[in-house]
């Protein structure tokens, strides 16, 4: 038992020791845990502080946000208010605009008419003279041109006579010196292009000795840049640009015809002249006389280039690239007014004539000589045709020729014609220069007789026309004022209608215990006053669009129909007087007639042209 007790004691001591170790371990663990929890606590405290400051910061930011959102709300309300005010204002302006736009088309039509009249006043044949510069090979030579005036004067000096005795003065509508650019030359032609779109025929010729710059003026130099473009390209560009700008009110169809009068035609008699194209003669792929629909300048240029490349050209001693044929580019424009449905047809003919030449100087022989003689013959025939037509002679030579027919349309009163007279300033060309100028002087002299008399001799007639134009403008102003008044009346009547309704409502509310002051306020606008104002308007005006009731002194009851009609007819009569006096005072203009069979429009020229 003692042994057992000893063993048990040893066991117990052993266990005690183990327990002591365990206790020690636990104490250590407790210490570690305490340290850990302390550090955790510290970190939590730190985090708490951070959160707190963050929360404070966010709270502050929130406050700021709230303030700014209130500010924004206020701003939005303000903006909304100002928007609605602006919308109201815009609405009013829009109303005004819509009224004005109704008159816009009338004003545009009037403007077009006045523009064409202005062109008429300038005469239906204009002759512009262009002196080309001396070319590099001619730089040493002397010029025959002594003076170019601002108003179309040109003085040419005879190189074989000394001093002023050899000088000769010519007068044209305009003379361009050697430094004139292609753009400057076109600027005076430009107004005529608009006429084509307004249904007129316009014919632009270039005439002059070989090598004097006809092709340069009409087309430009070979491979021309946009700056160097001649009248043809610029005219087409303008034509398409203007038609594009008018596309909201007009629809245009443009067709092009290119006719090359080849050199052989002159050997046929001009009597039997048919349109012969190079293609028909040489089997080349060039446009014939049929019409090609086109949509843009480049379409036309493409066609013209094909024509140009195949134009009969050859070198003479005077021009290394001389045109041996007449070239006519005809642009046919059919327009339709989208508002009225009326149609019009205008044509633009661009004619580059073959150069005239003195056979001995151009050193041509054989076939070329025959050709030159034919060209000269055809140009002198052209002169005869122009004079016969311009002088309204009953005997027009070469009546059946296409060129004569073209000229007939151009000079016969329905068209505006422009002739570029080209000059080579070189002294050796003096005699050709003088004969060209004499030809041009005859052309401008014959037909411009009328135009010039309106410019110089008949200043009185011109003054009268200007005065009547001014009169028309002031009448138009009056009309606009009337229209404005009508608009005001309409607005006024609408507000009176509102007022009527309001008044009825308030009267009703008076009996049902409405505000007496309000009624007193209403009666201040008394019916008599309203009637006065209305009768002021109804005397001078007629209603636009929907017809408002015309009020009697009861204010609410419309006038009897007959009475109303009386007021209206009085107003219409008054307005009619204004418009008829406007139309009476309008100067003579081409009248547009609708032909029943074709439903197309023919433009009757003013009498001065016939
Ligand atoms: N205003 C100008 N500025 C510069 N060069 C010009 C001008 N006018 C003509 N020329 C030049 O003069 C030469 C002859 O011009 P162009 O071929 O146009 O004459 P043309 O009258 O058409 O001749 P033709 O009747 O023989 O065809 C060309 O080399 C052309 O480039």
UniProtKB/TrEMBL annotation:
Organism superkingdom: Eukaryota
Keywords from the UniProt entry: ATP-binding, Coiled coil, Motor protein, Nucleotide-binding
Domain Kinesin motor as annotated: residue spans: 124-446
PROSITE patterns: KINESIN_MOTOR_2
GO cellular component, one term: microtubule cytoskeleton
UniProt-annotated binding residues for ATP: 208-215
Keyword Cell inner membrane (UniProt): no
Amino acid composition bias (Polar residues), ranges on this chain: 577-588
Gene3D superfamilies: Kinesin motor domain
Coiled coil: 452-479
Pfam families membership: Kinesin (PF00225)
Keyword Cell wall biogenesis/degradation: no
InterPro entries per UniProt: Kinesin-like_fam, Kinesin_motor_dom, Kinesin_motor_dom_sf, P-loop_NTPase
Family: Belongs to the TRAFAC class myosin-kinesin ATPase superfamily. Kinesin family. KIN-14 subfamily.
Name this polypeptide is given: Kinesin motor domain-containing protein
């Amino acid at each position: 038992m003692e042994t057992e007790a000893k063993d048990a004691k040893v066991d117990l001591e052993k266990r005690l020791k183990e327990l002591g170790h365990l206790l020690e371990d636990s104490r250590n663990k407790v210490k570690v845990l305490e340290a850990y929890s302390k550090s955790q606590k510290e970190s939590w405290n730190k985090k708490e502080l951070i959160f707190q400051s963050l929360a404070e910061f966010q709270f502050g930011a929130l406050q700021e946000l709230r303030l700014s959102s209130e500010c924004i709300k206020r701003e939005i309300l303000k903006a909304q208010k100002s928007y609605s005010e602006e919308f109201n204002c815009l609405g009013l302006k829009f109303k005004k605009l819509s009224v004005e736009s109704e008159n816009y088309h009338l004003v545009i039509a009037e403007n077009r008419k006045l523009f064409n009249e202005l062109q008429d006043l300038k005469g239906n044949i204009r002759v512009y003279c262009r002196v080309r510069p001396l070319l590099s090979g001619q730089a040493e030579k002397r010029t025959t041109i002594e003076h170019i005036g601002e108003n179309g004067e040109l003085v040419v000096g005879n190189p074989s006579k000394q001093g002023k005795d050899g000088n000769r003065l010519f007068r044209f509508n305009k003379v361009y010196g050697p430094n004139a650019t292609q753009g400057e030359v076109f600027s005076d032609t430009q107004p005529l292009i608009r006429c084509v779109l307004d249904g007129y025929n316009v014919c632009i010729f270039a005439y002059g000795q070989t090598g004097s710059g006809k092709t340069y003026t009409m087309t430009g130099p070979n491979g021309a840049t946009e700056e160097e473009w001649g009248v043809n390209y610029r005219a087409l560009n303008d034509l398409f640009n203007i038609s594009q700008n008018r596309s909201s009110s007009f629809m245009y169809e443009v067709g092009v015809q290119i006719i090359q009068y080849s050199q052989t035609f002159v050997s046929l008699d001009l009597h039997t002249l048919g349109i012969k194209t190079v293609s028909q003669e040489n089997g080349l792929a060039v446009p014939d006389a049929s019409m090609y629909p086109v949509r843009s300048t480049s379409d036309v240029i493409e066609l013209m280039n094909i024509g140009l490349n195949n134009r009969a050209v050859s070198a003479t001693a005077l021009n290394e690239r001389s045109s041996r044929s007449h070239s006519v580019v005809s642009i046919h424009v059919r327009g339709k007014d989208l508002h009225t449905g009326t149609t019009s047809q205008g044509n633009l003919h661009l004619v580059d004539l073959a150069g005239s030449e003195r056979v001995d100087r151009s050193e041509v022989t054989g076939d070329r000589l025959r050709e030159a003689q034919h060209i000269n013959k055809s140009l002198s025939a052209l002169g005869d045709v122009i004079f016969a037509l311009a002088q309204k002679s009953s005997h027009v030579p070469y009546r059946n020729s296409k060129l004569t027919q073209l000229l007939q349309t151009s000079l016969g009163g329905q068209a505006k014609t422009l002739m570029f007279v080209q000059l080579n300033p070189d002294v050796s060309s003096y005699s050709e220069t003088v004969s060209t100028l004499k030809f041009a002087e005859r052309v401008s002299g014959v037909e411009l007789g009328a135009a010039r008399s309106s410019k110089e001799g008949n200043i009185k007639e011109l003054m009268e026309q200007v005065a009547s134009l001014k009169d028309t403008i002031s009448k138009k102003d009056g009309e606009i004022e009337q229209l404005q008044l009508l608009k005001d009346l309409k607005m006024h009547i609408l507000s009176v209608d509102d007022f009527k309704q309001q008044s009825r409502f308030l009267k009703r509310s008076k009996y049902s215990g409405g505000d007496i002051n309000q009624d007193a306020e209403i009666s201040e606008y008394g019916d008599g006053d309203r009637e006065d104002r209305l009768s002021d308007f109804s005397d001078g005006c007629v209603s636009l669009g929907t017809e408002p009731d015309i009020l009697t002194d009861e204010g609410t009851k419309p006038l009897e129909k007959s009475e109303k009609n009386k007021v209206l007819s009085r107003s219409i009569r008054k307005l009619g007087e204004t418009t008829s006096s406007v139309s009476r005072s309008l100067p003579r203009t081409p009248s547009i007639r609708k032909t029943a069979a074709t439903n197309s429009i023919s433009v009757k020229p003013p009498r001065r042209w016939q």
